[in-house]
């Protein structure tokens, strides 16, 4: 029975170690030494750069040293004051650089769209100005034609007035001539027979 419990405990220990393992980061402002034991009295077996991610495996309550495993697979102890829970700047740097690159690309595309939009608006504005200029030219031409037609109309109206006035004068003149001729004929007509009678009387005598 005891042997079975011992075997079960031995099988559980690796899972226990994995359960207590937690991601941690070396502080950005230090260069930590990796010791073989939970204090600086143990020999140095390596170093970890500032900001490097590590996995916390254990912690000594007395010395507050933390057992970690670094990215190279080395296991050792580091002073707990050099360990932080928040992701270090060094660890976040690649993602920050990627975000910065994406932001620059996004801004670049926004600038391109803005420039294209401004170019389109400028082109449309130039087209509208050109069309407006053509409309003004057509309007000025219509005004010139209208003024020309008005002058021609005035000239024709003046000619018609002159012609009508002349026709009235001709009518009055012709009427006066006809009337005068009638009067003269009326005066001379009675005098013609008297002259004949007088001549006949002279012949008889």
Automatic annotation (TrEMBL):
Keywords annotated in UniProt: Coiled coil, Membrane, Signal, Transmembrane, Transmembrane helix
Location of the SH3b domain: 21-87
Membrane topology, record value: Single-pass membrane protein
Extent of the signal sequence: 1-21
Annotated coiled-coil segments of the chain: 118-166
NCBIfam families hit by this protein: SH3_and_anchor
Protein's cellular compartments: Membrane
Originating species: Oceanisphaera psychrotolerans
Name this polypeptide is given: Arylsulfatase
InterPro entries xrefs: SH3-like_bac-type, SH3_dom_pro
Entry's transmembrane regions: 171-194
């Amino acid at each position: 029975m005891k042997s079975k419990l011992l075997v079960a405990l031995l099988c559980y220990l690796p899972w226990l170690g994995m359960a207590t393992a937690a991601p941690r980061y070396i502080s950005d402002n230090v260069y930590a030494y990796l010791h073989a034991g939970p204090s600086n009295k143990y020999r140095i077996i390596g170093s970890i750069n500032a900001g490097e991610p590590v996995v916390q495996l254990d912690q000594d309550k007395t010395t507050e040293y933390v057992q970690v495993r670094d990215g190279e697979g080395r296991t050792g102890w580091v002073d707990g004051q050099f360990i932080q829970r928040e992701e270090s700047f060094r660890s976040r740097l690649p993602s920050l650089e990627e975000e910065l690159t994406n932001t620059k690309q996004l801004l670049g595309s926004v600038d391109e769209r803005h420039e294209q939009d401004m170019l389109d608006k400028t082109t449309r504005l130039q087209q509208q100005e050109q069309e407006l200029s053509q409309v003004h030219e057509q309007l000025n031409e219509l005004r010139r034609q209208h003024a020309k037609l008005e002058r021609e109309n005035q000239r024709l109206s003046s000619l018609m007035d002159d012609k009508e006035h002349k026709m009235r004068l001709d009518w009055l003149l012709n009427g006066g001539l006809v009337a005068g001729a009638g009067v003269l004929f009326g005066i001379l007509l009675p005098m013609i027979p008297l002259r004949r009678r007088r001549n006949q009387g002279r012949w008889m005598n």
